[in-house]
Amino acid sequence: MSGAVKGYLQILQREEIIENASFSYVEQALRFVTGATKSWSLKVSPSSPLKFRTVFDPHLGYSVFPVVYLDVEVDEALHIHKVPPFKKLVVTLEVKRFSDSGIIYRTHFDLANKSGNPAIYQEGPLYHVQFGGHSPGGVRASDFKLKIPRWTHPPMDLILVCETIVANFYPEKWRKLKGQRSWIEYINQSQQLCYTSYFEKTNTVLSGGRSLLNEMWAVEWGV
Fold first, then answer.
1. What is the DSSP-derived secondary structure letter of residue 42?
2. Which of 98, 114, 130, 137 is the least buried, fewest Cβ under 10 Å from its Cβ?
3. Which residues contact 83 (CB under 8 A, 6 or more apart)?
4. CA proximity to 107, closest of 122, 93, 128, 90
């Protein structure tokens, strides 16, 4: 999987979608990815995130740039429990003003947290998207206080989040890239990783006529 991540980011670098320095940060993190086919982890720090090129937003009337950081641990043995293979998943997207790097948008794709003794899941879907949250580094002034709702959402890894960023912020680049074989191959690897068990679960629940939200609640589906 490290090869797919590196190859995908090389495309973004070549197309001048991401900053060269931030590509180097992720490339360094990929050196620590081991057991890339079955069990591996990848961490990109908030202090050295993947940074995208500045783009002018006509609706806002000023320039912005997205950044992504993450903490992911994969164990594909979890597939036997019919859940996506993540032991840890936090992928955060922030959009910042170019003028002062102020955060105007933050969202993260999460695996529900466990806490306590015995450990129990937090309230919410096992895999969810959540808006706002705490600013890394303890900068409370830029916190988004509201923690809910947590929306049911399939897991998203670095490649899938980047694909969405490119499609929304750099649409001309996306139209150029989306049909290229290597682009599709990298994305498909991430889709297989993130979506296979998730949509198998979805189909099972829909076939049984049950509530999808209830069946995907962390205490119901988590292992």
1. E
2. 137
3. 126, 197, 201, 221, 222, 223
4. 93
